[in-house]
Design brief:
With 272 residues, the chain is an alpha+beta fold. Helix content is 33%, strand content 18%. The strands form two sheets. A four-stranded antiparallel sheet has the order 1-3-7-8. α1 (6-18) packs antiparallel against α7 (170-178) and α1 runs parallel beside α9 (195-207).
Length: 272
């Protein structure tokens, strides 16, 4: 979705720029591993390389944290290119599962749970889910522990404090109200509008070049994000369009095969 509210983007960009000194770094506890989902036809090293390559994300308005700027960008952002990047999940978590279900069915686990509570048919069933998995492959990557990651997530005190500080600004408050958002968090997780998250990410990219990635919370995993844990989190690694991000080292691929009884069997293979 595009930036629907340029005034929100501009207000958040300016406020975020004033808060540069408060942005915190974050490291992944334990093994530094992330995951990307792709098509089952993509296999081995070639498939793993494909999904660690930045694909037109600096010009694609469908991405939340990377993409073009609004035509009316503030003067501080004029002339700067849109940021590109590779989106990864912090494990086999709700963020990864949310991406799988959203792109396969245009739904999320949260939406399907609500349908069930409302007595409506669900999209994800014991028949549709295994069949969907059979069309997918998941790639696992490691990355250096020393990678500099800016914490913009909702799963940490630092990330939540940063969002509160952004929302306390009078200009941001006015812009959010005009866009009919009741809280900065609502704008952060909006699935139909990327105004706030893209402004946050582009300030990091524009003014803090030492950061190679941002730690963020996924709009596809609302329940996990509400619990304020890492189950709903992604890491977005910055890079120019067309670049293969060599700091992501392919480790394994996970495939799924549909069985005659309608279930699935998964296979795990190392990537040489």
């Amino acid at each position: 979705m595009p930036i629907k509210h340029p005034d929100v983007y501009e207000a958040v960009y300016l406020r975020m720029r004033d808060l540069l000194s408060t942005i915190s770094s974050r490291t992944v506890p334990g093994a530094s591993r992330v995951y990307r989902s792709g098509g089952a036809v993509d296999k081995g090293r070639a498939g793993a390389d494909k999904y660690r390559t930045v694909y037109r994300s600096s010009v694609n308005d469908e991405y939340r944290w990377t993409g073009p700027r609004p035509a009316s960008s503030v003067s501080a952002a004029k002339g700067k290119p849109g940021a590109g990047g590779v989106y990864t999940s912090l494990g086999m978590n709700d963020a990864l599962l949310g991406e799988l279900t959203f792109y396969a069915f245009q739904t999320t686990l949260d939406l399907d749970v609500q349908r069930q509570l409302d007595g409506q048919p669900t999209t994800l069933t014991s028949t549709t889910f295994p069949a969907m998995l059979a069309t997918k492959r998941i790639f696992e990557y490691t990355f250096p522990v020393a990678t500099q990651i800016a914490d913009l997530s909702l799963s940490s005190n630092a990330g939540r404090s940063l969002l509160r500080a952004i929302g306390s600004d009078p200009r941001v408050k006015k812009a959010l109200t005009g866009a009919r958002y009741t809280t900065p968090r609502e704008a952060y997780l909006a699935s139909h509008d990327h105004s706030l998250p893209r402004a946050m990410a582009q300030v990091v990219r524009d003014f803090l070049p030492g950061y190679q990635a941002i730690w963020v919370s996924s709009a596809r995993a609302g329940s996990a994000v509400s619990m304020q844990d890492q189950e709903g989190d992604n890491i977005v690694f910055f890079g120019p369009d067309g670049a293969t991000l060599n700091l992501l080292t392919p480790v394994r691929e996970i495939g799924f095969a549909l069985q005659p009884n309608g279930t699935y069997r998964h296979t795990v293979q190392a990537i040489p």
